[in-house]
Each structure stands twice: as structure tokens, then as C-alpha cells.
Specification:
This protein is α/β, with parallel strands linked by helices. The protein has one domain: 3-Layer(aba) Sandwich (Rossmann fold), CATH 3.40.50. The chain is 34% helix and 22% strand. The chain has 9 helices and 8 strands. It has an 8-stranded mixed β-sheet, with helices on both faces. Strand 5, helix 6 and strand 6 form a beta-alpha-beta unit. The radius of gyration is 17 Å and the shape is globular.
């Protein structure tokens, strides 16, 4: 079901942009191969006012994970990426209300991130409950498809980790295969995260819903050896 467009959406987005908490990144060229050739890199030191490590979440939804991560870890900077205006406005307003200085949200499609994010500048990447796109014909849209994994490799610092969580077992199996095919090393694989009692877990909106329904949460960490 398509989400109903929020009231005063453009006005609310503009307010979030004016606050400095939300950056809207657009590409006139919608070909993700050619559009990223000419770079428009963000200056992290200027944005955050410090030189702390930068971590990124792609598919931030309403921002619960990114907000909690930034609050727990004031010594890192968090970039929360979400493509949908109707969703990211909630995350941005949440971040503004909580006055979290080390969190900035980006409205951007993942395909175009390497136009704006400097090469080998991200210390860790989170993929939380990405859309599984269950139809085989839509596999290239999955955020763990090799098309995206190659982009992440260029964005991440050497040896930096990708942390993925999902409730969808077929999507998790697909992710395991894609990571392996692209040369990533896998570790800390869990087929039931809550049963494994992972201590540093931050529960997202989707995660709580699925866990309350008795569904297992799948998790992995992936990195490319130096």
C-alpha cells in the first residue's frame, strides 16, 4: 500500500533543510553510471564541525536507529540516508526535536551516493531492514545486490564493515551469496539475533514489530580484507 502524502510536506522539508539537519541531494542525470562521474563531495568537517569518524545508514526510515546510534556515540558522526521525502521528513523532525548535533540526514538514492560521498571516507555502514524486493526481476533494486556492494566498497574505508539486519530469510540468503561473490568476508552471522542476545543491538521500528510477532531477526557483518 502506498503511503499517503503527508500534509505540508514541502513546507516541512524546507524547515528541516533550513535547520541544517537535512540535505536534499538531487541528480539531473538519472543514469546512475554517468551521473556520478562529476563529483560534488560533501565536506564532513564543515557539516559536523569536527573530524570524527563518519558512519552511514542507508534506508534510515523514520530515523529511530540513526537517532539512537548518534545519541549513544557522541564521538562519531552519523549520516542517515533515505530516498523517500514522505519518510525522511519524520526522521529529520525527530532529530531536530532531540537536538542531536552529530546526526545529519540525506535525501538521496543509494545509486548516486558516490557522487556526493568522498571515496573511502565512511567508517561503517548499516543496512537495517532494507526492502527485500521479493520478485526475482527486481533483484537489482536490493541494497545488497552486487551493484550496490561495489558502490559501498568505494565509499568505505579499507577494512570497514557493513552491518545488515533483516527479517526476510530469502533476502538474507541472497545477501550472503552476494557478499561472498563480491569478495567480502562474513562474520558474526546470526539466524536469530534476539535469541543470541547481541549486547549492542539498537532495535528499529520494523525490528520491534517483527520480533513481537515471534519472527527471527537475521544479522551479519561483512568487510573486505585489506
Amino acid at each position: 500500500m502506498r503511503m499517503r502524502r503527508k500534509a505540508r510536506l514541502e513546507e516541512r522539508l524546507a524547515g528541516c533543510v533550513d535547520s541544517g539537519k537535512l540535505i536534499i541531494l538531487n541528480c539531473e542525470d538519472r543514469n546512475f553510471v554517468t551521473s556520478v562521474i562529476e563529483k560534488e563531495y560533501l565536506d564532513f568537517e564543515t557539516l559536523f564541525g569536527n573530524k570524527n569518524p563518519v558512519v552511514m545508514e542507508i534506508g534510515a526510515g523514520k530515523g529511530q536507529f540513526a537517532c539512537e546510534l548518534a545519541k549513544r556515540s557522541p564521538d562519531i558522526n552519523v549520516l542517515a540516508v533515505e530516498r523517500t521525502s514522505n519518510v525522511i521528513v519524520d526522521a529529520a523532525e525527530k532529530a531536530i526535536a532531540a537536538d542531536i548535533p552529530n546526526l545529519i540526514l540525506l535525501r538521496c538514492d543509494a545509486e548516486y551516493l558516490e557522487k556526493f560521498i568522498p571515496t573511502h571516507s565512511i567508517d561503517k555502514l548499516y543496512l537495517n531492514f532494507s526492502c527485500p524486493f521479493p520478485k526475482k526481476s527486481y533483484a537489482a533494486h536490493r541494497l545488497t545486490h552486487r551493484k550496490f556492494l561495489r558502490i559501498y566498497e568505494r565509499l568505505l574505508k579499507p577494512g570497514a564493515e557493513i552491518h545488515q539486519k533483516t527479517d526476510n530469510r530469502p533476502f538474507f540468503q541472497f545477501s550472503l551469496e552476494e557478499f561472498s561473490e563480491c569478495g567480502y568476508t562474513l562474520k558474526n552471522i546470526s539466524l536469530d539475533l534476539h535469541a543470541d542476545d547481541y549486547k549492542d543491538n539498537i532495535v528499529t521500528e520494523y525490528e520491534k514489530r517483527f520480533s513481537d510477532m515471534g519472527m527471527p531477526i537475521y544479522r551479519l557483518e561483512a568487510y573486505i580484507k585489506n
